[in-house]
Amino acid sequence: MNLPNCIVAQSGGPTVAINASLVGVICASIGHYGTVYGSINGILGILNQHYLNLTELAASGKDTLQRLATTPAMYLGSCRYKLKDYHEDASDYEKIFAQFKALNIKAFFYIGGNDSMDTVLKLSSYADSIGSNIQIIGIPKTIDNDLMITDHTPGFGSAAKYIASTLLEIAHDTIIYPVKSVTIIEIMGRDAGWLTAASALARNSYCSAPHLIYLPESDFNTESFVEDVRDLLTVQNNVIVAVSEGIHDSNGNYISAGENSSDTFGHSQLSGAGKALELLIRASLPVKVRSVEINILQRCAVHLSSATDLKEAFLSGEKAVSLALQGVTASMVIMKRTSDAPYTITYDYAEIKNIANEAKSVPREWINARGNNVTYEMLTYLTPLIQGEVPIAYHNGLPNYMDVSHLSSQA
Q: Which of 339, 63, 296, 73 is nearest to 186 (CA)?
């Protein structure tokens, strides 16, 4: 009997864990689908008929799949392509579903974040409108940790581990100088401050940095900020500040050093919150001050990945296949936390209509009243997600990742 096939794609920003989800899909599909196709550059690969045969890749053996699982970013490439409403223009949908038919596709798995789930929602709605029985399942991925309903998202734990490790190293770098100084660390987070909150994990018995944490969930006041820094400098030499790129005042105006633009999905592209605060402190206080923008560095730092994160990413990919085989569609894999200590979770699904185009913010009660720190509840939530180290292969002193030259062969 000829088995139907499935197709998987990756989209949005890169993470350490997204290829582990891809491996989960591949492994769980063997014996249930004839061929697992990989769409190159997200949904664009289907529109452009550009695929990899992942079943053949899996035949290379467990070592190849292990190497793939610990390769950062998207092995299949990514895109930020926004599908139009099919009521207005169905041309893309017609091409995509024509390809599904040509390839005998029974299930489509899309690994990504908020914008990718928008694609899952639109494809699911179109499938329903034409009576298609193709299962369409979203697999969560985002370092921003802002997808609704799921306890957290694969990719976040490793990024959080990188952020916390970096803040601890910056504290070591700063404390050696017996001079008054302020170091401002700008961390990704346009609408949600989960990554910036993770900086609090750097604190230990001798390190109290970061001394101030500002998230976009709490309105930012420049006068209060200067006062916070000034007060700390009366009792210590060095002040380290963690700040989300998306901090804003009570009127919703971003604290930025430059003009903002928007991306394909209409999200603000922010510029220089850390630099803006550096200039503010420089003008207000007679101290040494610098700003550091971590920017994209935590997205592909496999050398600081969380074993918990990669395991959960793999199992999320497996769960997606299991759901599709059960006939579930128009949904996303979710994780439900059942205990903090010991840390345990279960895997389930939620309808994509309740997830797409929404964003999960840090609960305001997990931020202190003044808006310059996080609470114990945040640390309890974060700590399990960064546990464990991942063995990676090295060659000539550098990580030995999968060859991704197939991504540069196309314009």
A: 296
Omega cis (within 30) before 286: no
Helix (H, G, I), strand (E, B) or coil at 314: helix
The secondary structure of 220-264 as a DSSP string is --HHHHHHHHHHHHTT-SEEEEEEETT-B-TTS-B--SS--EE-T
Closest CA to 409 of 50, 17, 117: 50
Q: Is 13 annotated as a binding residue?
A: yes
Task: Select which of 115, 144, 146, 228 is catalytic.
Answer: 144
Counting every residue written for the chain, the total comes to: 411
Domain locations along the chain: 5-155+302-358+390-401, 158-298
In tens, the pLDDT along 10-46 reads 999 999 999 999 999 999 999 999 999 999 999 999 9
Tokens representing residue 320 in the block: 């997606």
CATH topology of domain 5-155+302-358+390-401: Rossmann fold (3.40.50)
CA dihedral 118→49→9→188, nearest 10 degrees, is -70
Alpha helix (H) residue ranges in 61-212 = 62-69, 91-102, 114-130, 156-175, 194-197
Q: Is 144 a catalytic residue?
A: yes
Residue 399 is encoded by which pair of tokens? Answer: 């990580």
Q: Is 190 annotated as a binding residue?
A: yes
pLDDT in tens, 282-337: 999 999 999 999 999 999 999 999 999 999 999 999 999 999 999 999 999 999 99
Q: Go through 340-369 and write b for each residue having 16 or more CB atoms within 10 A of its CB, e for each that does not.
A: eeeeebebebbebeebbeeebebeeebbee
What CATH number has the domain spanning 158-298?
Answer: 3.40.50.460
Residue 188 assigned as binding residue: yes
Does residue 38 have a known ligand-binding role?
no
User: Does the annotation flag 143 for ligand binding?
Assistant: yes
Residue linked to tokens 């550096």: 278
Sign of CA dihedral 71, 266, 109, 329: positive
